Amino acid sequence: MWVYEKKLEYPVKVSGPNPKLAKAVITQYGGPDGELAASLRYLTQRYSMPTSQAKGVLTDIGTEELAHMEIVAAIVYNLLKNAPLEQIKAAGMEGYYADHDRSLFFVNGDGVPWVAAYIQSKGDPIADLHEDMAAEEKARSTYEHLINLSDDPDVTDVLRFLREREVVHFQRFGETLNIVWEHLSSRKVW
Amino acid sequence: MPAMNKDELMLRIQALEFTAVDLNLYLDTHPCDARALADFNQVAAALAQTVAVYEQMYGPLTNFGRSQSCGRWAWVEQPWPWETQG
Fold this sequence. Notes:
The complex is a heterodimer of chains A (190) and B (86).
Chain A: H1 19-25, H2 27-30, H3 35-45, H4 52-80, H5 85-90, H6 94-100, H7 125-149, H8 153-185
Helix pairs in contact in A: 1-4, 3-4, 3-7, 4-8, 7-8
Chain B: H1 6-29, H2 34-58
């Protein structure tokens, strides 16, 4: 069961319409290292984790990633909301506009739609937790690229917050890997 | 708690809940840290108190029965979180 809170985890403001920036930031909505992939990866892997602690970490981080997906959506929505068609064309977003107007859709920066193949669930907690740590580093790196591209200081501020969270999640997954490792190696053999 | 306007109250809720989220993740891997646990409980209490003040003035923040809606169905009256800009 999930409930919805009518608030963002971190406040979102944009300086004005900016389809060029929206085209880049949308990759964290529906790209390979984006927030949809992150939340679904963790919320799916949690079922086969061997310890209650690992199930908790995947549930809690997977849930926070849903809040990050909403933050990214709020950025893209507001960057596109009042964007004139001329700006959308200049940003190379005609193809996106033709299919989606200014609505949200799960694509990367080049318009490639999200696929489940971006994520894995091996049923092997050691493999899964290593994937999760790599995923956090890839997302951190993507946010750094987006910060390099951003010409909107309000958007950059939110991207910095999201980048920081990837660092914290990486840390928690590393600790979880150690706990799971210990659990598996101390298992009794009868 | 000092008197705050709607935006200030929301910012306070966001700050408190963020602190709770971060402590929650930390406690998942450090369940025996008594200081973090005390901090978490203190923040959770302050968050509940601030949310109650906000909801009384501006309507429910959470769906599915976690917030009451007094007198009328207020859930759909306030703007949605992505509609913060005109």
